[in-house]
Design brief:
single chain, alpha/beta, Aspartate Aminotransferase, domain 2, Aspartate Aminotransferase, domain 1, seven-stranded mixed sheet, three-stranded antiparallel sheet, 9 helices, 14 strands, 35% helix, 16% strand
Length: 358
Amino acid sequence: MGKVHVFNAGPCLLPEQAIDNAIAALKDFKGTGVSVLSISHRTKEWDAVMDECRGLWKELLHIPDTHEVVFLGGGASLQFLYVAMNYLEHKAAYLDTGVWAHKALKEAKGIGDAYAIASSADKNYTYIPKGFEIPEDIDYLHITTNNTIYGTEIKEDLDCPVPLIADMSSDIMSRPVDVSKYALIYGGAQKNVGPAGVIFAIIRKDSLGKVSRYIPTMLDYRTHIDKLSMFNTPPVFAIFVMNETLKWIKSMGGVEAIHKLDQEKADLLYAEIDRNPLFVGTAAKEDRSIMNVCFVMAPGHEDLQDEFLAFAKERGMIGIKGHRSVGGFRASIYNACSKEDVQALVDCMKEFETLKTK
């Protein structure tokens, strides 16, 4: 097969620089003669990686001293429970914008009083709810900033009168974020900042310790802050690749430069979807994600879906089939996806149009 263009929703395409450095470290980690897969996490060489990785998070997102960064296993889905255990005392509100937001709410309901403050379920989550009021008697408001399955995104930091908690699994490091507005930002690494197997949590330290319940040691964020993410053996290899990915982001000009490029990629693909008579976007235009571009065959052309998938695959397009719950197509254009990759998909769509309308 010739060149492939990877649009997988996750795990994501990683920068070649990060992959090459990971391959080298698999054979010899920092001149120790030991593979990174076998290195002890209690060595000075590993301490240096952890320090560098935390430092890069703080530098790239301009994280204030009020917040700390921790790295954990278990995936972002386990964080749904972490959030409720650490923050839910009386009641909490959730913005219901898709499957993952709904699952986060379900876990909170298992701990205490939690409810959806607003929802876009009425239109199959194709838009972001607006105009909702945030009561001041809740412990926190939880949002999912980017909805991978439906292709919608909250693109600005909300002004919130209560602690704001955000799952940023699929758009972290794709735009500047005012971290000071959040009590907690968390997410899986495997969309934009590394491989599957590690999550990040950016925690405002004074937001913890406000609940009266007993929190199991492993589920208490304070445990991992105090032990510098090494209360138990961390996911060493995943953190190493995350660190290499963050170094690549810095080399590209940082989050601000990455955001400009991500916006250009999204604009290029959405423009073709809007122009091409064979395709139509599914998300409300004002809420379109710059990470996950969702579209379907236009009315009257639905029977061409499987044919286009096969056509695109022959031309090296990998991972554009839509999520099984919504169908259609989804191109995930995370940070390491290049503008050339997106142009190749656009050219493929144009070629298919010519073939079917000539």
